[in-house]
Design a protein that fits this description.
- By secondary structure, the chain is mostly helical.
- It has one domain.
- It contains 8 helices and no strands.
- The longest helix is centred in the C-terminal third of the chain and has 30 residues.
């Protein structure tokens, strides 16, 4: 099987390398105590570079990242993140794997980009509101740290994950908003324990990668429509 890194452009390789260096650097600066956060962050930035390419392997890595991130969230009592990634993000990523494998663009590894219909957007927004409302009360009952920010993370994460299943370029923008929420969430955690600094740097690089993902998916859509 061909190494998927061979398909990355020079810019994409640089972006992945810089993201990895930032994650490792933050791990060293924080005292090198939380290896799990560093490993999860490295898996996450690798997943995003392949999501930006529209490759199914990106979704497979999302499942791995979601599992590791759920463990990290549990250790800091971020039960919202635990439930979101283990019970929502990971299963939706599995659904996205199936969707992307069923809709490749011709004979390439690249997924076929899809244009959203208004009713799909409305349905996804309604589901997001229902899921967010339900999660809020569950998280409140569990005594989740930083409840409001955690609840907002649930909403943005669910909406973004839904867009990945629908194969829309706007998944990346939605995840970009989620990244900003998570940066705030983990800054609050880092104030209490500096070993969580890699998670802050992780989501900063996630934000940069998601911006590139949106750009590349728009380019992919234009290329696919032209052909």
């Amino acid at each position: 099987m061909r190494n998927p890194f061979h398909d990355l452009s020079k810019f994409e390789r640089y972006l992945w390398a810089i993201s990895s260096i930032v994650v490792i650097g933050s791990f060293v600066l924080s005292g090198g105590g939380d290896w799990l956060s560093m490993i999860a962050s490295l898996v996450g930035v690798t997943a995003l570079i392949f999501l930006a390419k529209g490759y199914v392997i990106g979704q497979v890595l999302v499942v791995v990242f979601a599992t590791l991130y759920a463990v990290i969230s549990y250790l800091f009592a971020y039960y919202g993140e635990l439930l979101t990634y283990l019970c929502m993000t990971a299963p939706i990523a599995v659904a996205a794997i199936i969707s992307w494998m069923r809709h490749p663009y011709k004979d390439t590894k690249e997924v076929e980009v899809r244009d959203l219909k208004p009713r799909q957007v409305v349905l996804l927004l309604c589901l997001t509101l229902l899921v967010t409302f339900g999660f809020y009360w569950v998280l409140k009952y569990l005594g989740t740290a930083n409840l409001l920010v955690s609840t907002l993370s649930v909403a943005t994460s669910f909406f973004a994950a839904g867009l990945t299943v629908l194969r829309s370029p706007y998944y990346a923008l939605a995840y970009g908003v989620n990244d900003l929420v998570l940066i705030v969430l983990w800054v609050l955690a880092t104030v209490e324990n500096v070993s969580y600094l890699p998670m802050v740097c992780c989501f900063v690089m996630f934000f940069v990668n998601d911006l590139y993902g949106f750009y590349n998916w728009k380019r992919m859509r234009s290329k696919q429509r032209a052909k």
